[in-house]
Amino acid sequence: MSSFSKPAVFTGGFAAILAVSAQTQAEQPADVHSAVLDTIVVTATRSEEKIEDVPARISIIEPAAIEQSPIAQISDLLRSDASINMVQNGGLGQVASIFLRGTESDHTLVLRDGVRLNSATSGMAPLQFLDTTDIQQIEILKGPASVLYGSDAIGGVVQIISKQPVRNTVFVTAEAGEHSTYKSIIGADWTEQGYYAQVRGQRLESDATKVFDLKELSTASYDQKGWSAKAGAKQENYAYALDYSQNQGHNAYVSCANEDKDYNCISYGNTQQAFSNEMLNLRGEIQLSTDWELHARLSQFKDELDQLAGVDFTHNKTQEAELYSKYQLTAHQSILTGVTHRKISGDIISYGTAYTDDNRSTGYYLQHQYQKEGLNTQLGIRLEDDAHYGAQTIGQAAVRIQVLPLTSAYANIGTAFKSPTLDERYNSWSGNPNLKPEESISYEIGLDQKLNYGLSAGLALYHTTVSQLIVNGPQYTLENLNKAIYQGAESYLEWKNGPWFSKLSYNYVKAQNQDIKEDLQRRPRQSLSWTAGWSNSQYGLNASLNAKSDTADYQAKNPGYATVDMHAFWQINPHLKAFTNIQNIGDINYKTSSYGSGLYYLNGGRLASAGLTVQY
């Protein structure tokens, strides 16, 4: 099954059968696209808001896209946004980094229902080890968001919103694909009179694909298993929820097996490691009066890696307590006030060097919002009191105006910051305990236009300056660079007509080190994404194109590439759904990042799969 040529043909044929079936079906169900519902987001203001009212650029990965393939990782889903360059060193289970609008891989804050997933050591979220079973939608807020969320949100915020039960059901899903890849999910939901409970269990195994361009290296296998549960209530004047999830498994990756006297790698090998992550999230809210609501959250996220062939390990833990309230001053004005206390800790042995530290910070924030038909504004400020770095004061101002009945424009300006990670301060090869926080200021203007025949379009121009950027210095020790500038343009053209849909998005970004006037690594100047398809409540078929221009990298340049994915489903009856997916249908092998010495990490290649869901 490792070559999987017959199943690949099967899944392609299955997609064609679904398309033909959709055209020849005698009786079509009601068109789910005939009524356009408002898209609601919560990341920009911490409360429900129409996406068209947000005075910033925010995009959504919707439930239909997430449910296409249980095997797909979060990194696969995020590739559909042209403003993101996902760099993953291979396929399943390999390190995945987000470069949002050209900013650094640790400049994007990743949340799950408000819980911070960025680690104390690397500063990035373990996207490659997060399960996608229980996701409702993913919100991508672009631009600085440190006023509401504190450190790390220089480039933006990616927030994973989990599902909440809406009806009583039990289900089983199974998907099988190339490279002996399998995933199974079992789950149950219960809800009655505003109270609900949910449980999920999942397992994923794969022989995976080559991740490195050396023929003698074997593929990097991957397996994971986990479960999640939640219970809560949503009543007229109060709500609460308790969520728990854990995921664990093993994966292989390529590392340097031997170095010469000048620290050049002269041999490579596959290394095995065990991973685990665990999240606990307790949330509550109460409507104190018609104008005043109070929210509270206690959460903990643990992210651990243990090397199986040595003593090295990385154990991260983030604990947070948050209290915030929203008060409706007038019919059109509200005030959001809050305080967040955070403790992040890391316990690490890296290349035989041990270091342990924790950091505590408390953030106080205030945001005023004005909402009236045709005008939406935000004005906010935050004071972050950090145990290591003292006080940081940041602010943001934004406005969206309905210029014409079908035309709206927005503008915003904001500052943000990111504290150095434990790796940056203490690692044995380049750490510097004297590093200062990175600081940024960003400007953005944008326009959204609704057109005839179901068309809509948008354009945004943005400029971000980061001072004290942390980079490798001449002596291979990390230091604060004077300045880096990220400037670019983002546009989209969207069309919806009944069951037909299409969205084309394009992003141009120039990310440069201003000291030496060179492009920063792994930032393609140009990115394009296009998804088009047809879908109703019984059938669906769509294809996606993702393309990137070439990028500068360590001792090399990574060539540009383009890939095409295809997805199809058939709701055979209310209890049985069949689906098929082909990621990278052309099996394009492209270089994701440079290892140095002329060697590269490669992408995961094609992954064709098919599956069934049985639900009652």
TrEMBL record:
Example GO BP: cobalamin transport
The TonB-dependent receptor plug domain sits at 51-157
Among Gene3D superfamilies, the record links this protein to: TonB-dependent receptor, beta-barrel domain, TonB-dependent receptor, plug domain
Q: Where is this protein found?
A: Cell outer membrane
Record membrane topology: Multi-pass membrane protein
Q: Taking every annotated instance into account, which residue ranges of this chain make up the domain TonB-dependent receptor-like beta-barrel?
A: 220-585
Q: What InterPro entries does the annotation carry?
A: Beta-barrel_TonB, Beta-barrel_TonB_sf, Plug_dom, Plug_dom_sf, TonB-dep_rcpt-like, TonB_box_CS
Locus of motif TonB box: 39-45
Pfam family example for this protein? Plug
SUPFAM superfamilies this protein is in?
A: Porins
Q: Which organism is this protein's natural source?
A: Acinetobacter pragensis
Q: Does the keyword Ion transport apply?
A: yes
Q: Which UniProt keywords are present, listed alphabetically? A: Cell outer membrane, Ion transport, Membrane, Signal, TonB box, Transmembrane, Transmembrane beta strand, Transport
Q: What is its main location?
A: membrane
Spell out the family assignment given in the record's similarity comment: Belongs to the TonB-dependent receptor family.
Q: What is this protein called?
A: Ligand-gated channel protein
GO cellular component: a single term: cell outer membrane
In terms of CDD domains, this protein maps to: ligand_gated_channel
